[in-house]
């Protein structure tokens, strides 16, 4: 019985570690690049709006 209990405990801990590792991997490969792309898009959009306004304003 002692072997069974230790096996169950090791299995539960192992499963929790695998789930945590897959969550971190998903975050690194999917979530962070999407956030980075969105931030870059926002920055480029702001620059484009500024340039557009500056190009169409009168000099006088």
Share of β-strand residues? under 5%
Q: What overall geometry do the principal axes of the alpha carbons give?
A: rod-shaped
Please give the number of β-strands: 0
Main beta-sheet annotation: none
CA-based gyration radius? 26 Å
Your description of this structure?
InterPro entries: DUF3042. Keywords: Signal. Residues 1-20 form the signal peptide. The N and C termini lie far apart (90 Å). The chain has one helix at 2-55. By secondary structure, it is an all-alpha fold. It contains one helix and no strands. Helix content is 90%, strand content 0%.
How is this structure best summarized?
Helices cover 90% and strands 0% of the residues.
Mind sketching the topology for me?
Elements: H1 2-55
Keywords:
signal, mainly alpha, DUF3042, DUF3042 family protein, 60 residues, single chain
């Amino acid at each position: 019985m002692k072997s069974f209990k230790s096996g169950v405990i090791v299995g539960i801990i192992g499963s929790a570690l695998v789930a945590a590792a897959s969550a971190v991997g998903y975050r690194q490969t999917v979530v962070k690049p999407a956030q980075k792309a969105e931030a870059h898009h926002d920055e480029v959009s702001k620059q484009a709006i500024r340039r557009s306004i500056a190009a169409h304003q009168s000099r006088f």
